[in-house]
Amino acid sequence: MTSPERPEAAPDRQPGWFLLLFALASAGGAVAFVPLLTVLLPERIAALQGRADISALAQATFLGAVTASLANIAAGMLSDATRRRRVWIVAGLAASNVCLLQIGKADSVSQVVLLVMLWQIGLNLMLAPLMAWAGDCFPDSQKGVLGGALALSPALGALAGSLVTIEGLFPNDARLPFVAGLVTVLVLPAVLLGGGRKRPGLMVSRAAAAPDAVRFAAHPVKRMWAARFLVQVAEGGMFAFLLFWLRSLAPDFPEHSAANIFSLVLVGAVPLSLVLGRWSDRHQRPLLPLAACALLCAGGMLVMATASGLPQAIAGYVLFAMAAAIFLSLHAGQTLRVLPAPEHRGRDLGLFNLTNTLPAMVMPWLTVLLVPQLGFAALFVLFAVLAMVSAALLATLSQSPKTPSV
Fold this sequence. Notes:
Blueprint: H1 16-49, H2 54-82, H3 85-103, H4 109-137, H5 143-149, H6 152-164, H7 175-193, H8 206-209, H9 211-249, H10 255-283, H11 288-305, H12 310-338, H13 345-374, H14 376-398
Helix pairs in contact: 1-2, 1-4, 1-6, 1-7, 2-4, 2-13, 3-4, 3-7, 4-13, 5-10, 5-12, 6-10, 9-12, 9-13, 9-14, 10-12, 11-12, 11-14, 13-14
C-alpha cells in the first residue's frame, strides 16, 4: 500500500552492495555495545573493586542508558540541522572508540562511570545519523528487506561478545582495542563508499505533498512507537533474566548454554528476517509480518509460562526470542516509512530510540513486583498480554485503507 504521493521508480532502489554495507555499519553499533555492557564492563569494574560490584555496574548501566536516550535525540537533531549525516557518523565513531579505549585505562569506578556516559554520547553521535541516513537513502519499496538486513546487528553483537570471552584468544588488555577496531572495520566502508546515495523523493516533506495524509500520520507513528515499546519490555526482561528462569527449572543449568541458545536464536533470525522483509516489499504488506511476529511472541511467552520442564521451556523461549528478533529488525525498517517529516527524521528516530532505552528502566520494577510473589509465570503472562496488545495495534493499523505511506 505504498502512498501514491511518493511514487518510487526502480532506479531509486539501492544496489545490493550498499544494502549489505549499511547492514554491516548498523551491526557495528551492536558490536560496540554488546561486548562492553555484557562482559567487558562488569569485568573492568570487578578488576577495580576486587569483586563483582553489582551496585557500581547498575549505576554505570542506568546512567549510560539515560545519557544514550538524550544523546540520540540530540545527535539526530544535529544531523537534521546540518544535513550532513556521514560527517557526524565518523565523528561519533572516533569519539566512541576513544572513550572505549580509555575505559580499559581507568583507575577508579567513578572514572569508568563517567567514561561510559561519554562513550554513550559518542556512540549515539554515530548511530542516530546512521539510521536517519537510511531514511534518506532507502525507498519504501526496500524498507522490508532493509529491516531484514538489520537483523545482522544483534546477531553480530552477540557473536562479538562470545568471541572476546574465548579463553586465551585475547589478552585482557587487548579486548577493548579489538572491539574498537572491529567497529571501525564494520562502519567505515558504508560511510566512505556511500556518497550520493540519498534519494530526492525521500527528502520531500509529506506536509507539502499530502496535507491530508499528515493529519492522519500521527496515528501510525504513535501506534508504531507503542507496539515496539511493548515488545521491547518483554524482550528486555527475557534478556536480563533468562539464566535465572532456566535455573529455577534446572538448578545446574550452565551459563554458557544460555548464552549459546541466545546467540543461535539471533543468528537464525537473520535469514528469516530477510525472507519476511522481502515478502513484505513484494506484496506491499509492510505491517503484516510485524503483527504476526508479535502474536508469536505472545505464544512463546504462554508456552514458557506453562512450562513444567526444560525442553518445553527452551522451546517456548526459542519461539519467543526468534519472533522478537524478527519483529524488532523489521520494525526498524518500517518505522522509516511512517515518519512524516524528512527534515526532522533524526530527531524523530531519537524519540523512537526511547523504545530501546526506557524498557531497561521499566522492566526491573515489573520483575521485582511480580516474581517474588507470583513467580516467573505471572511475569510471562504479563509479557504475553503486552505482545498481544502490540499485535492488535499493528493489525488494526495495517487494515486501515487511509494509512499514509503504508
